Structures are given as C-alpha cells and as structure tokens.
Amino acid sequence: MFKNPFSFSGRIRRTEFGLSVLLCVLGYFLCYLLSSISAAILQIQLGNYSFIFWLFFIPFLFFITAQGVKRCHDMGHSGWYQLIPFYCFRQLFKEGESSINKFGSNPKELGNYETLTKIENTH
User: Are 91 and 85 in contact, with CB atoms under 8 Å apart?
Assistant: First the structure.
C-alpha cells in the first residue's frame, strides 16, 4: 500500500483510496493549523485563501490527485474522470476491474502467486 503515492500510473484499491482521502482531510486541517500558527508568529492576518495555507496544502492536493487518477485507472477509466462532480463517491464504493486492463494488473491479485504465474506466462 502507498507504493509511489505521487505517481500517476498504475492502479490502487478502494481501501488505499479511502485512506488517501482520510489522509488528505487530516492534512487539510493540519495545513490550516500550521498556517494559523505561522500567521500568528509572523503577525499577519490570515485570509480564507492565504498563501501560507496553500504553501502547506499543495503537496496534499498533488497526492490526492495522483491517488484519484490511479483509482480511475482501477475502474478502467481515464484519470480525467475524477473531474466529474461527485465522482469521488463512485471511486470510494465501486469495485475495480477484476482483470488486467490497459493501466496495469489488478491490485487485489498482486500478491497472488497464481496470478503472477499467469502474467509471466502471457509475456
């Protein structure tokens, strides 16, 4: 789990995507807290879209975007599908394709010896 979390290639399972969403939500609150503390130390007024907040939050935004693309890949779709409103709920609850697709092998079966043998025999 969480191998190459900033990569846009491959597939991930629902579990990893759900944990990524949780991590991003926690990161959002952590970034808000850090930006508030930084603003207090620097004695500047913190607006809703403060530069300091975005400085802390951009890595989390990149992370969740990459994870969303990989989850779209698991369902057999392009990563652009995550731009559809409320598509994240489909990503959280819909099971991915059970076989190898154009984005890679099924992440559920990566540890399965029989599946690895089948993949090696096809090449």
Answer: no
